[in-house]
Amino acid sequence: MPATIRDVARASGVHISTVSRTFSAPHLVNPETRVRVLACAEDLGYRPNRAARALITGRTHNIGLIVADIANPFFPPLIKAAEGQARHRDYHVFVADTNEDQAAEEELVHALAKQVDGVLLCSPRMSNSLIEQVSREVPVVVINRQVAGLPCVMMDVGQGARLAIEHLLGLGHRRIALLGGPRGSWTNREIRRAAGTAARTGGAELTVLGPNHPTETGGGAVADQVRRSGVTAVLAYNDLMAIGLIEGLDALGLRVPADISVVGVDDIALSRLTRPKLTTVATPTAAAGRTAVDMLLQLDSDAPRGARGRGATAGDRRTTAQVMLQTELVVRDSTGPVPPPGRDTGA
Fold it and tell me: Which InterPro entries has this protein been placed in (predicted)?
């Protein structure tokens, strides 16, 4: 028979209410008493009833994590890191996928709002105004997007795009294509802004092709357009598109990097397994997942007493806390010197 809260109270020599506070509000319990109660609970195999604890504390100890496309290899390291960090803080994570659909994203936030203490929105497709609106219903931390007045964890893809373009310029490329990602993507806008500035500074012509679906299929679909554009190098919105593009170019008889250099963004595991190995911008996805969990839990902890949890208003949770994590360029085999004049690249 499972151990009960009464068994733990009897074994540790305290009142039932002290055991309850040990799990629901440990900062209110004497440290020595807390250690003794937790040790007895562990010995007895006692696990507190989360539903009952939620009624007392107003907290479910659940977090929602909504991602744009769970099939994209960019997201699993972030999900795994967020789950590990949440578990360390005695929270559980509910993961949901929107399949790049803004309406589905909004619907999921509303569905999770009553079941979690907060939501992590990763690479959201909703507009900033809509994100602000749903944040009035449940605490929100945004990953890979900047929203004024809301806590955000961003990866500096702008810096990464600049490093990628400078790398291509250093190899002699002056006609470069940018394969854009989804319309409305903050990451896409940042990459385009930084790549455009770096290209102009370096005296290069940047041709923007997109928006495109951010998948391997999406990258392959524009291979012929890249060939006809006459560019000698390409920066893709993400690694999946870059890998798809390389496959598409190969089918057209173009070699990477001998004929066209290709750079991706994300440094997913597959980028190290392709042939040629992909030059890419490494993004700190695991660090973003851990940071976002800590930020969400700190947000609730810092709320005024009586304004914590799901009942807090958007004003209670307003913050300027925004974290920018650094990216770096990883040079592998998919980039090389610009082809010599006169070489046929299919244009």
Answer: HTH_LacI (IPR000843), LacI/GalR-like_sensor (IPR046335), Lambda_DNA-bd_dom_sf (IPR010982), Peripla_BP_I (IPR028082)
| 162 and 146 in a common domain | no
Instruction: Tell me the one-letter amino acid at 228.
Output: R
Same domain (yes/no): 151, 252: no
Whether residues 179 and 263 fall in one domain: yes
| Residue 330 counted as domain residue | no
Same domain? For 98 and 213 the reply is: no
Q: What is the pLDDT of residues 171-184, one digit of tens each?
A: 999 999 999 999 88
The burial of 342, by beta-carbon neighbours within 10 Å (0-12 exposed, 13-18 middle, 19 or more buried), is given as exposed
CA distance 236 to 330: 14
Shared domain for 179 and 214, answered yes or no, is yes
Nearest alpha carbon to residue 248 among 223, 276, 279: 223
Dump pLDDT digits (tens) for 106-120.
Answer: 999 999 998 899 999
| Position 171 in a domain | yes
What pLDDT sits at residue 307? 47
In the numeric block, the tokens 């290899």 are attached to: 73
Residue-range definition of the domain harbouring residue 150:
62-155+285-325
CA atoms of 139 and 121, how far apart (whole Å): 10
Quote the number of domains for the chain: 3
Residues 167 and 264 occupy one common structural domain: yes
